[in-house]
Design brief:
Strand content: 15-25%
Helix content: 25-40%
CATH topology of the largest domain: Rossmann fold
Largest sheet: 8 strands, mixed
CATH superfamily of the largest domain: Glycogen Phosphorylase B
Distance between the termini: 16 Å
Length: 392
C-alpha cells in the first residue's frame, strides 16, 4: 500500500513519528509525506522554516514548492507535485488541512486528471458548526463529494461533517500521538527542589497557553478553595492573561503558592509534568472567538492530557469539547467554569491517595492502548485497509 500524506504539520520531524512507524508496520507499506518547502509557523516560532528531503527506507519526506507560507486553508503546492504523484502512484491520498482546503482540492483534482484511482482522505480538528458562502461553499462541496474517508480529531467534528452531507467512512482519532519514551514516569526530586516544591506538597499543574478560553481564572478560584491543604499550583506556559492571573492570585492571597514557568523546550515538558500530582485542563467554550466562517471555540482534543496520562499523572478536565471523550473513566470531569466542583475534584485527589493512584494507572493504560504513535499508526493503517476494501 502506497500512502501519500500532505500537510504543513510534518515540517517538524517529531510530528512524523506516527507515519514513520506506519511505514514499518507491514512489508508492502510505503509512506511519502509532502510538506511545503517554505513555511512560517507563527506564534512563538516566528522564523521561516525551509524543509529538506529525507528518506528512511519506505518512508520519505518530500518538500514541494508552495503558495501561501502561513495560511493553512490557502496552502497550494507547485507543479513538482505532479511528477511526484506520477512516480509514486499512491493508493491513499490524505490531506490534513481541513474540508475547505485548496490543497485538498488540488490533490483530488490531480488524482482524477492523472487517473491514479487513489482514495481521497482528509483530516480536520474543526468541531463547531459553520456557514459558508460561495465560492468556499462550492469548494467544500466538491471536496466532500470526492472524499472516501474522513479522519477527524474529535466526536463533534465528525457529527458536524455528517450534518454537512458527508456519509462515507469516518475515524475519530488525534493527528499526533504521544511519545511514550519521552513522556514516562520520571521522579524529579532535583527539579522539585529547584522550583520550591516540598515533598509533602500536592502539585496541581497546567500546561498550555495563558488565554481566557483555557479556564485559568476558574482554576485559580478552585485552588483557593482548597484552604489549608498543602498544595502548590504549577503553571507552565505563556500568554496575554499572565499579568491578570498574577494580580488575581495576589488578591486571593495565594501568590506565594503559584509557580510560574515560562514555556520550555518540548523535551523538558515531561520533567515538569512529572512534578505534578495532577494535571488540570479547565478549558471553557468561548463564544467571542471569530473566524471568517464561524464564531466560537471549544477544546478540540487536549494533547497535554495524554502526555500526562503517559507520565502516570492523574488528569482532571472540564466538559468542554473533546475532553470527556479523551479522559473517559481515566480521570475526573467537571462542568466548565465551575470552580466549586473543580475544587472538589482536587480535594478528592489530595484526600484520597488511593483514588489518585487508581486514576494514574487507568490513565497510563489508556494512553498506552489508544494514544501512542504506534497505536495510532495501527489504527490509521486499518482505516486505510477498510477504505481500500482489504479489511471489513
Amino acid at each position: 500500500m502506497r500512502i501519500l500524506v500532505a500537510s504543513h504539520t510534518y515540517i517538524v520531524d517529531l510530528n512524523c513519528e506516527k507515519l514513520r512507524l506506519m511505514a514499518a508496520l507491514e512489508p508492502d507499506v510505503e509512506v511519502t509525506i509532502v510538506v511545503p518547502r517554505r513555511w512560517r509557523p507563527g506564534g512563538v516560532q516566528k522564523n521561516l522554516v525551509e524543509t529538506r528531503f529525507r528518506q528512511e527506507g519506505s518512508f520519505q519526506v518530500v518538500p514541494v514548492s508552495n503558495f501561501s507560507e502561513n495560511k493553512q486553508g490557502l496552502l497550494f503546492f507547485g507543479a513538482a507535485l505532479i511528477s511526484l504523484l506520477r512516480k509514486f502512484r499512491p493508493d491513499i491520498i490524505q490531506v490534513e488541512q481541513g474540508s475547505k482546503a485548496l490543497a485538498y482540492f488540488e490533490l483530488i483534482t490531480l488524482n482524477r486528471i492523472l487517473r491514479l484511482n487513489a482514495k481521497n482522505v482528509f483530516f480536520t480538528w474543526w468541531n463547531l458548526p459553520y456557514e459558508l458562502r460561495f465560492p468556499i461553499s462550492w469548494l467544500e462541496n466538491y471536496n466532500l463529494r470526492h472524499t472516501h474517508g474522513l479522519i477527524v480529531g474529535n466526536q463533534d467534528g465528525a457529527e458536524i461533517l455528517r450534518q454537512r452531507g458527508y456519509q462515507g467512512a469516518a475515524k475519530v482519532m488525534p493527528q499526533l500521538g504521544v511519545d511514550e519514551e519521552l513522556f514516562s514516569p520520571q521522579p524529579q526530586p532535583e527539579l522539585a527542589a529547584q522550583v520550591g516544591v516540598q515533598p509533602h506538597e500536592f502539585v496541581v499543574g497546567f500546561v498550555g497557553r495563558f488565554v481566557p478560553e483555557k479556564g485559568l481564572l476558574t482554576l485559580l478560584k478552585a485552588v483557593e478553595k482548597l484552604g489549608d491543604r498543602p498544595w502548590k499550583l504549577l503553571l507552565l506556559g505563556r500568554g496575554p492573561l499572565k499579568e491578570t492571573l498574577m494580580d488575581e492570585a495576589a488578591a486571593m492571597g495565594i501568590g506565594d503558592r503559584v509557580i510560574w514557568v515560562e514555556s520550555v523546550p518540548h523535551d523538558d515538558v515531561p520533567r515538569y509534568i512529572n512534578l505534578m500530582n495532577c494535571l488540570v485542563l479547565p478549558s471553557e467554550t468561548d463564544t467571542q472567538f471569530k473566524t471568517l466562517t464561524t464564531a466560537g471555540w471549544k477544546e478540540q482534543f487536549g494533547h497535554v492530557l495524554i502526555e500526562a496520562m503517559a507520565c502516570q499523572v492523574p488528569v482532571v478536565g472540564s466538559d468542554s469539547g473533546e475532553i470527556p471523550y479523551v479522559i473517559e473513566d481515566a480521570g475526573l470531569i467537571f462542568p466548565e467554569g465551575n470552580a466549586v466542583v473543580l475544587s472538589d475534584c482536587l480535594a478528592k485527589l489530595i484526600d484520597q491517595p488511593d483514588l489518585a493512584r487508581e486514576l494514574s494507572q487507568r490513565g497510563y493504560d489508556r494512553a498506552m492502548t489508544r494514544y501512542t504513535n504506534l497505536s495510532l499508526a495501527k489504527q490509521q493503517l486499518e482505516f486505510y485497509q477498510q477504505i481500500l476494501g482489504d479489511r471489513p
